[in-house]
Design brief:
The chain is an alpha+beta fold and 466 residues long. It contains 17 helices and 14 strands. The chain has helices at residues 2-8, 18-28, 30-33, 64-79, 103-110, 128-141, 165-176, 180-188, 211-221, 226-245, 275-279, 312-318, 343-355, 372-382, 385-392, 412-415, 422-436, and strands spanning 11-12, 15-16, 42-49, 53-54, 88-92, 119-122, 147-154, 255-256, 263-264, 301-311, 324-333, 362-367, 441-448, 452-460. The strands form 3 sheets. Strands 3, 4, 5, 6, 7, 10, 11, 12, 13 and 14 form a 10-stranded mixed β-sheet that branches. A two-stranded antiparallel sheet has the order 1-2. The protein has a two-stranded antiparallel ribbon with strand order 8-9. It starts with a helix and ends in a 6-residue tail after the last strand.
């Protein structure tokens, strides 16, 4: 440091002159004085996903990274981009496989991407791949990278189950024990209760309440009947079945199970029932009077998804036609007990305000369906002046969207909900529907554990094709 000072400034008495320093800083700080323009158009090239399957079915002998790897391989094959253009990979996951803690990195390596490409994994409950997508947007907007893959994976067919806390403590102590006597002492302290496994929590840590109970209470608070919930669930399955039959779900990439002849090429949770059959199901959470059942709830699902995003400039250089612009996004958070599932009601008005749009400007709505009751509660909240005034700080209600434009290809109730893969599925469906339905703007919203939520705006790219 002294050498640098000695050579740059006139010295007096062993110390640089103050005036010389100021003059130097004024004339030689061009690097930091240059104005940085990080405003860029970020585009969604395309997205893919494995078929979403009920947990415990055809994927049951795999690992999460198998599905994540396939989504990465399939994305490249579908778009036909050179792998070397990818500069960063970020994936979401919720129930983490301890062997592949940074699953983004493990999947990228096994998918044939360069080991020079950094990768990290994020978690934000049901909006984890939304977070992966917006994390990628942030890296691009800041000028760090131009091309990023964002994705998500969830594998609930095999989840980590721990020994009990007492048993884990004894095992750690045994590992440190130096003599046979010390080990025998620990062994004799084992009790039968120590062998009871510690299962992953299905309840909110803050409230110790399951999301199903929250949905039941929310439905009761908004006066939503069992009949309304069943009708909405039937709507979701009916629309998803129609989209499946008409070949609209083009984000699906078939998956060949290793060492099995079976090729999986469609979601297996879509099942159109009847109102009469749905009405016969017993409550799943609040018994015997609850209104949330297995049929009007999303089910445990395995699956992975991935999307390629980049600057518009880079896409044009590569000769790629994007499907949509990624415009605005917002994350919200509220009371995780009474308002656990109301994320969309908070996120939708905020993201619309950021984008200077209103409800009528949105031609495509893709909203995560955790429960039918949750969806209907959010719709009622959006249509409530009281809710707007008390919780949103607005004088008037947000308003109900055109339901003909709402989850027109079904949603998580029917397609399935691999926690960390749903966000990219929502984005892919939004982009494809914008093109198919000749709309300009699409809005994505979802609730998440912890009382959080997300809202995102996408805009159709000129000349885009499905």
């Amino acid at each position: 440091m002294f050498f640098l000072v000695k050579n740059k400034f006139l010295m007096k008495g062993g110390f640089p002159k103050y005036g010389s320093i100021i003059k130097y800083l004024k004339t030689n700080n061009k690097l930091y004085a240059t104005k940085s323009n990080v405003t860029k158009n970020i585009v969604f090239i395309d997205g893919v996903r494995t078929p979403f399957l009920h947990s415990g079915t055809s994927y049951k002998n795999l690992m999460a990274y198998d599905l994540a790897r396939h989504s990465l391989v399939a994305l490249q094959k579908k778009i036909k981009f050179p792998k070397e253009i990818v500069e960063y990979i970020v994936y979401g996951t919720v129930i983490q496989e301890v062997k592949t803690s940074n699953i983004a990195r493990e999947a990228a390596l096994t998918a044939g991407y360069s080991d020079r490409i950094p990768a990290h994994t994020v978690t934000m409950a049901c909006i984890s791949s939304n977070q992966a997508l917006t994390t990628g947007m942030g890296l691009i907007a800041c000028g760090v990278y131009d091309v990023i893959i964002a994705g998500g994976v969830e594998f609930l067919s095999d989840i980590p189950i721990r020994h009990s806390r007492h048993m884990r403590t004894l095992m750690l102590q045994a590992n440190k024990a130096k003599t046979i006597g010390e080990k025998l002492t620990l062994f004799t302290s084992i009790r039968a209760a120590h062998f009871v496994p510690d299962l992953p929590a299905v309840a909110e840590f803050s409230s110790n309440e399951t999301m199903g109970h929250s949905s039941d209470r929310l439905a009761a608070a908004f006066g939503i009947s069992r009949k309304e919930q069943d009708e909405y669930a039937l709507r979701s399955h009916t629309l998803a079945a129609k989209a499946q039959q008409q070949g609209y779900l083009t984000d699906i990439v078939p998956y060949k199970i290793p060492n099995v002849n079976e090729v999986i090429n469609k979601d297996n949770g879509i099942q159109v029932s009847t109102k009469e059959k749905l009405a016969k199901l017993k409550p799943a959470f609040v018994k015997p009077y609850g209104t949330v059942t297995a049929a009007n709830s999303s089910f445990l699902t395995d699956g992975a998804s991935a999307a390629l995003i980049m600057t518009e400039e880079k896409a044009l250089q590569l000769g790629l036609t994007p499907k949509a612009y990624l415009r605005n996004f917002i994350y919200v958070s509220q009371d995780p007990i009474d308002q656990l599932l109301l994320g969309p009601s908070y996120a939708i008005p905020q993201v619309l305000q950021k984008a200077k749009l209103n409800v009528k400007d949105i031609g495509v709505w893709e909203i995560h369906e955790a429960f039918a009751g949750q969806i209907l509660a959010n719709l009622k909240a959006l249509d409530s002046d009281l809710f707007a005034q008390k919780y949103l700080g607005r004088s008037l209600k947000v308003g109900i969207p055109d339901l003909n434009k709402w989850n027109a290809w079904g949603g998580s109730l029917s397609i399935g909900h691999p926690f960390a893969a749903t966000g990219i599925r929502l984005a892919s469906h939004t982009a494809n529907r914008l093109i198919k339905e000749d709309q300009q703007f699409g809005l994505i919203a979802a609730c998440a554990a912890g009382g959080q939520g997300v809202g995102m705006i996408m805009e159709r790219y000129p000349g885009a094709k499905v």
